[in-house]
Amino acid sequence: MLTGLVDAHTHPVWAGDRVHEFAMKLAGATYMDIHQMGGGIHFTVNNTCSANEETLLSSLLTRLRQMNQSGTTLVECKSGYGLDLENEVKMLRVIEQARTRVPLEISSTYCGAHAVPKNKTAEEATKDILESHIPHIKSLMSSGLLRVDNVDVFCEVGVFDVAQSRAILQVGKDAGMQINFHGEELNRLHSAEMGAELGAHAISHLEEVSPAGITAMARSGTVAVALPTTAYMLRLRPPPVRDMIQQGVAVALGSDFNPNAHCLAMPIVMNLACVMLHMSMQEALAAATINSAQALGQSSMHGSLEKGKWGNLLLLDAPTWEHLVYQLGCHTNVISAVVFKGEVIHE
Ligand code: NIG
Ligand code: FE
Asked: Nearest bound ligand to CA 18?
């Protein structure tokens, strides 16, 4: 028996896959080459904006059920393929509707600053987010129509810079959301220090984080969310999780499920974390349970089997729990049942 897994970072609401871009990357194109050509996130934004709520909800529910069958009982779900207010709210509404329809807990994230819309500058987009998006979402939250748990930005060269990201995260926090953002992925911008200063719950990616950034995160108790599927897909150098652990930063794991990194299964992420990030299986388990729950501010009810917490657990059909990590791609054979809030979901 094992505690239910927690996936600390996903982008599960979208239409239109990007298998053609996988081929482009294999032929040598970088993630940012494709983004700057109008593909990548922009390609998914076009397709997601054209899709209706019903279609998006139906694919989201399928994906969430697959995650649950792979052992996930708490998952973070981002918006971020709408970019304009109408489509961002559409995505958040789709996530809201999924909450009562699937046997797992959702932590929702407003990620309107996932890319700069094609017809705007980053400055204009930041202004829209600060003056129109977040106030509107806050009013939907206050009237009980939406629950939004986290605020996110993609802080990166060619996307939102550190000052713009800081402003968005601060206003999101003031509106009642936890700070949880993409930082230090492709370039060292020192967004880890900025996030730590704002009291971020979590920062994801961190391949390029500096030693000072790690120290700042340790001091502020900010969780580092490592995303090995993305480092693998984009052949990035892995984030320095060993240094983070040594400095006292809690390291969590996320699948980063999105059209670029199409992985729904945390046991596969745990295997990649062991091999690529040099984590032990024990560390990967802590990262995919209690530390991920901590990244989402939900460790009081999720992430471990303790009296008073939800009864979210996995029953395993294997000689030891380590087989869940070791049997790459065979995790559904290892998991014989998933229990969510005391109820058996899959057998
Ligand atoms: O976490 N880096 C930004 N966001 C996602 C990718 C989203 C996409 O490519 O559609 C990530 O890897
Ligand atoms: Fe992401």
From this structure: 1
ipTM over 0.85: yes
The pLDDT tens digits of the residues spanning 234-269 come to 999 999 999 999 999 999 999 999 999 999 999 999
Asked if the structure places residue 162 within a domain, the reply is: yes
In a domain, 341, yes or no: no
Q: State in Å: Cα 37 to ligand 1 middle.
A: 16
Number of domains comprising the chain: 1
Ligand 1 proximity of 113 Cβ (cutoff 6 Å)? no
Task: Using most ligand atoms within 8 A of CB, pick from 257, 260, 269 the residue to mutate for ligand 1.
Answer: 260
Instruction: Judge if the beta carbon of residue 12 lies within 6 A of ligand 1.
Output: no
Ligand nearest to the CA of 14: 1
In terms of phi and psi (left: phi > 0; alpha: psi -120 to 50; beta: otherwise), the region of 290 is alpha
Question: Would you say residue 333 lies in a domain?
Answer: no
Whether residue 166 has its Cβ less than 6 Å from ligand 1: no
- pLDDT tens by residue, 19-52: 999 999 999 999 999 999 999 999 999 999 999 9
